[in-house]
TrEMBL record:
Protein name: Dipeptidase
Highest taxon in the source lineage: Bacteria
Organism annotation: Hymenobacter yonginensis
Keywords: Dipeptidase, Hydrolase, Metal-binding, Protease
Keyword NADP: no
Entry's EC annotation: 3.4.13.-
Amino acid sequence: MASLLEQHQDRFLSELLDWLRIPSVSADPKFHGDVLKAAEYLKARFEEVGLEKVELCPTAGNPIVYGEKIVDPSLPTVLVYGHYDVQPADPYELWDSPPFEPVIKDEKIYARGACDDKGQVYMHVKALEMMNLDGGLPCNIKVMIEGEEEIGSNNLGIFVRANKEKLKADVILISDTGMLANDAPSIEVGLRGLSYHEVEVTGPNRDLHSGIYGGAVPNPINVLCKMIASLHDENNHITIPEFYKNVAVLTDAERAELNRVPHSDDEFKQSIGLNDVYGEKGYTTVERIGIRPTLDVNGIWGGYTGEGAKTVIASKAYAKISMRLVPHQTSDEITALFQKHFESIAPSGVTVVVKPHHGGEPVVTPTDSVAYKAAADAMETTFGKRPIPTRGGGSIPIVAMFKTELGLDTVLLGFGLDSDAIHSPNEHYGVFNFLKGIETIPHFYRNYAAAMKA
């Protein structure tokens, strides 16, 4: 397999770069045509690697690219999920090279979507091709790649509920996560949920001269900053009443096991240019990321932000605020608690509007399943080390939805690294990681098929 991969790796990389050139930004309507173009590109690649019943499945938003290969109905079926849409690339000026003109530099592929999630999706496409070149598929495979993950997957649940027979499978396989390091393979077995909001604070009915009115009227930007600051106490504990009511509390033994993950605070700080770690008092960095909920401001704006000075008190101020959730919190519960609390702390003289956006549920996947063992064995084969189970800080809301709607557990077989700068300028994905994924995925299928047959 490795020698076969070497024969084709340059072509595989070239094809990925072509796909990365298509700016499939789902959040910005001006890229809608490019989103459709990216879907069409993937559909063509599905057909090339031998998938059947390949189609662009329409939704109320962007289409879902679907294909399958049923080699024998008596064999187990794996449903692969991923997404072809990408985050906005703004601010463009912070990129060292244009985000949609991919380059390979220092053995890394630089482009928006290189790791999240086009590069990892394309590993699966090329793994299918590799298996076809090396004896065929050992089990049935269905592939469903959506175009709205970065904006909340609003239409995926509708599609899944309407197509349960089409999507019938034994397990879900997703590569939209990461591992500890190239020499420390790992498999994520937990993900945090999400509750996301936009808030608007309104004061006077128009922007005001800060000299004539300053000191006599509420400044919405000042007010918003105070409100946000009050959401954490001196121990970085979130102050929303009942926020922690349902948070799963790990035992000392469970926390000790979690902290066996290789981690260095010094390396962590150095990697992102900090002089100290930060977070909720009483927890390690690994715990803060994996098992504790958070609240963060993702954007804040209002007033004059152009060149030079403009002495103005803005009429409105805005912020985007997200909370990462852990078992057994739910997005509906936290959304309601946040909205009630944020509106309650507004001082007189301003009005506050809280607009909930998308959410998702936290999930923990089993480590004693046939599928997890097949994935762990596959990584051990190609990396030469047994992968470590870890809990990730990110959110993939559809994992919980797949469990609810399809009754299926998910294996998160990701090959990204924390240093890949996903959602940031200069996103990149290691050539090693891309090729290692293509090498590893076929081993998963073979291991899984053999174990299910036994």
